[in-house]
Write a structure and sequence with these properties.
The strands form three sheets. A five-stranded mixed beta sheet has the order 3-6-7-5-4. A three-stranded antiparallel beta sheet has the order 2-1-8, with no helix packed on it. Strand 6 and strand 7 (126-130) form a beta hairpin. The longest helix is centred in the N-terminal third of the chain and has 27 residues, at 13-39. The protein has helices at 13-39, 101-104, 147-150, 178-182; strands at residues 48-54, 57-62, 66-71, 85-91, 94-100, 116-120, 126-130, 132-138, 141-142, 161-167, 170-175. Helices cover 21% and strands 34% of the residues.
Length: 189
Amino acid sequence: MPSGRPTAPPPSSDSRESLLAELRALEEKLQRTQAEILARGGESAPGLHLVFEVAGRRGLLATLRVAEIVQLVATSPLAGAPAHVLGTFVYRGAPVVAVDLAVLLGVSREPAVSAQIVILAGAPPVGMVVDKIERLVDGPRRFAGDAAAAMPESWRGSALVCGLCVEDGQVLPLVDPAPVLSELPRGTA
């Protein structure tokens, strides 16, 4: 039965590409703004953050970067992809590239069936495979000491770390997923 509301015609590929480009620009601006907020200091990192674990490492990810969290699913291989790319799967009608964060951090492994995929907000759809999501924290307290000395050994040298916070007495890295996108084969990101 018609709802009486006008329906918009499906977007042309040109307008879709234009919207995706605009979305990417907004995401980059959001990243720059969040980085500036972190650089200016303050007691805490703004907003809600997921506390996650991957290969025995804990980290924080701003929920603004998260579209959804799903259980690990079967993936189809992606030709020419680096080892940390598990493959692709279809999520809500769109292909998503699944990236194993543990492998990206240098740990060779197969994710457990209990692993979860954090689907990142934005385009193109990318999912980071983690072992588990522990909980949400609001405004985790920023680490105020020597970041180089306090950096957890297992995260040292990772381009994913954009800052440090203290949660439950442990120094945890704030993870920026932008480098995950840059590591993907051309045509997927």
